[in-house]
Specification:
The protein is built from 20 helices and 14 strands. By secondary structure, the protein is an alpha/beta fold. It folds into three domains: 46 residues; 143 residues, 2-Layer Sandwich (Nucleotidyltransferase, domain 5), CATH 3.30.420; 200 residues, Rossmann fold (3-Layer(aba) Sandwich), CATH 3.40.50.1460.
């Protein structure tokens, strides 16, 4: 079982034979996947993951020490994002299987539909067992031996079709960036980065943006902590990567960080004080950044679309829902809804009492674009959610969605891109949920955003992605957000809390 595997791993760590250590970590990963079974309730799976949070990171470090960078990439992708990975398994394309073995494909389709509904604990276990048994049967068929097994490096590298993906591995053994391209992987050692310092500095940054850190709620202290954190991220991560692997000025780059840095604004790393010399030492001045929780998630976002994008859903909640305390009303929500209704003719707007969880999820399947203007945060049970009129729209709700033709979701809501601090590698946030649900682009925020800033970002973002014909071109989203952030920084270089939280997930 897992504990025995972890004992073997610890024994292997004491040797100079890093290949044996990597093998032990790989076996620990396999055991962890069996332990965090899809038949368990989500809270139970979370409890198990919290007990062993670093297996993927330490396994990748061992593989790198053994001189196997491609194996390290596979370890990182297979050993993180486990709950969402199980959701992606359920959503796998069955067309190839259906053409040869339609009976097995139909069985999996039926189980998929049942699993996506509300089921009891006993039903969940029975469905999970039936799914596992059917997958095992598929693997006995010629040509399907690797059905739903971990993705190979060659397949993972397809995620880098439009630019490099930088995996930042934070481990107590060593820290490195693995720059994945369609031609392979390049290792960039990060000797100035340590796991302990990453954890300490990230805790300070999170406390500062939450208003509970140095100086309490002092705005000046918060900005200083955040500026210092961005400079440190540049020194220990971004600058070494961009020096060793120069990307053309204004080129695309995807960040995929692990450990504490999965919560970090790597897209905003750098020295932003206009008086700092030399100038241009920022990620924002060098590349157009996007984020992805894993390579597999990015591959999912790159899947072919069935139809051209059309129709926008706007969900706007100005008044704080009665079930939420301690939050203000959001006048910006009404302003954003009016702006989008006036700019795009095929817009469906849900406001106030209309903006229910059932109605919003129902209409998401009918629209290629979605804009949420509401409060975001965590529920009393710790689930990330959007706070709609009647109830929170949670990760579990979003996990049930399977949207083939979803293109762009804009979350004008606080805390929608920040994960669980105890499990940063699992990306338990709303942005990742919408990406897994099917949206190819998601714009969201790491921390609290001001009302006026939310309106300004909405206005400028859509102005950048609208075509001359008045339609939305989602392929412009990453560049559009980059342009908007640039302008916000120009206006307020000493206030990174205003311009640094906005990030883009997807292609």
């Amino acid at each position: 079982m897992l504990l025995a595997t972890l004992r073997a791993r610890r024994a292997a760590e004491g040797l100079t034979d890093w290949n044996s250590a990597a093998q032990a970590f790989a076996e620990a990963q396999r055991q962890l996947h069996l332990t965090v079974w899809r038949g368990l309730r989500a809270p139970d799976r979370r409890g198990l993951l919290v007990r062993w949070p670093d297996i993927a990171n330490d396994g990748a470090a061992a593989a790198l020490a053994a001189g196997e960078p491609e194996w390290a990439v596979e370890m990182l992708d297979h050993g993180r994002f486990l709950w969402w990975g199980q959701v992606l398994d359920i959503r796998t394309d069955l067309s190839a299987l259906r053409s040869v073995h339609p009976d097995l494909a139909e069985r999996l389709s039926a189980l998929r539909l049942q699993t996506d509904g509300d089921v009891s604990a006993d039903q969940r276990r029975r469905l999970a067992t039936a799914w596992d048994d059917t997958v095992a049967a598929v693997r006995t068929r010629p040509g399907f031996e690797r059905f739903l097994l971990p993705t190979s490096f060659d397949e993972l590298a397809e995620a880098a079709a439009d630019g490099p993906v930088v995996l930042v591995n934070v481990s107590r053994h060593r820290c490195d960036s693995l720059v994945v391209t369609t031609d392979g992987v390049r290792v960039v050692p990060l000797p100035e980065l340590t796991a302990d310092e990453a954890a300490r500095r990230t805790r300070e940054y999170l406390a500062a943006v939450a208003g509970t850190g140095i100086g309490g709620t002092s705005a000046g202290a918060r900005e200083q902590v955040l500026l210092s954190y961005l400079e440190w991220l540049w020194d220990v991560v971004a600058e070494p990567v961009l020096t060793a692997f120069p990307v053309p000025l204004g080129g695309r780059l995807w960040w995929c960080a692990s450990g504490p840095l999965a919560l970090a604004p790597l897209h905003a790393a750098g020295y932003h004080d206009p008086d700092d010399a030399p100038s241009g030492r920022t990620v924002l001045d060098r590349v157009v950044s996007s984020m992805t929780p894993t390579l597999r998630a990015l591959r999912h976002a790159r899947r072919p679309a069935q139809a051209k994008p059309s129709g926008m859903l706007v969900v706007a909640c100005q008044r704080r829902p009665d079930y939420v305390t301690g939050l203000p009303d959001l006048p910006s929500a009404t302003r954003e809804a009016a702006l989008l209704r006036s700019r795009f003719s095929d817009t469906t707007v849900l406001t106030e009492s209309e903006a229910t969880t059932s109605r919003a999820t129902e209409l998401l399947a009918e629209h290629a674009f979605a804009h949420f203007a509401c409060h975001g945060g965590t529920t009393s049970t710790g689930e990330a959610a959007l706070f709609l009129a009647d109830a929170p729209l949670t990760l579990v709700d979003l996990a049930r969605l399977d949207l083939d033709d979803a293109y762009l979701a804009v979350l004008s809501a606080c805390h929608t891109a920040i994960g669980d601090t105890d499990l940063p590698d699992e990306a338990h946030h709303v942005a990742a949920a919408l990406q897994v649900a099917g949206f190819r682009h998601v714009v969201s925020a790491l921390w609290a955003i001001g009302d006026d800033t939310a309106t300004a970002v909405t206005d400028d973002l859509y102005r950048e992605i609208i075509t001359d014909e008045g339609t939305l071109d989602p392929s412009r989203t990453a560049h559009a957000l980059h342009t908007v952030t640039h302008e916000l920084r120009r206006q307020n270089p000493y206030q990174p809390s205003r311009w640094a939280p906005f990030i883009h997930f997807g292609i």
